[in-house]
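This section describes the prediction task in plain terms. A model, or a person checking by hand, is given the sequence of a single protein chain and must write out its three-dimensional structure as a string of tokens. No templates, partner chains or ligands are provided. The sample shown here is typical of the held-out split.
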Amino acid sequence: MSLDFIFSNLNVIEVAVWTTFFFVVAIRYLRPFWVKNISYGWLVAGAVAIHLLYGIFATWGQYVVWGKSEFTKVFLSSPLTGEVAFPAYLDFLRPLFDGSNGYFAFYSFQHFFLSAIALFIIVGLFLLFLLARSRTHPVNFREGDIMLIVLAMLISGWPGVIVLLPIGLVSAILLSIGARVFYGIERIPLSPAFLLVAPVALIYAVPILSALNLYPLLKL
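The expected answer:
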């Protein structure tokens, strides 16, 4: 498999990797004895690693692609000049890209790592909310529920996590109503609904957000 093929189909490969990872998590949830030696904590660490490895691999790929042409090779050793558009909310980071290869460093950071950082921030904030909620309403959480929701968010990626949160909450409400009406079950945890919606958010986040005119605001 050539590098050109990999780079030209990187988005498809990324979705395939996360789909495979989703099935691993689903098996861990539905058939825990099959993969009982894999904890949710290790799966979370694996998901974080995948996001970071994607950024590293994409950065290396961009370096290889630009290095093949004399026209683009100059970008590898160019400083980040004032003419380069720099998002206002990242202005405090500009000194980090003052080196001789500042342009390439900033390009890689913005295109291959910024979305992961935004995702980690959202996941971290929601994790804190869930932990606080579990202390005040422990009956609503079973063992592993919080980590399963975190995994669903990491699988969704950015901007998929923005789609996952509202749809996951609505799905949880609908599942709870259905379980109560048809099966007499009083309470359904959030985690199954979030896990169920994760692939939808992963694959269809961009069309959904574009239809709502939100994608231009969330694209990083």
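For orientation: Residues 26 and 110 are 32 Å apart (CA to CA).
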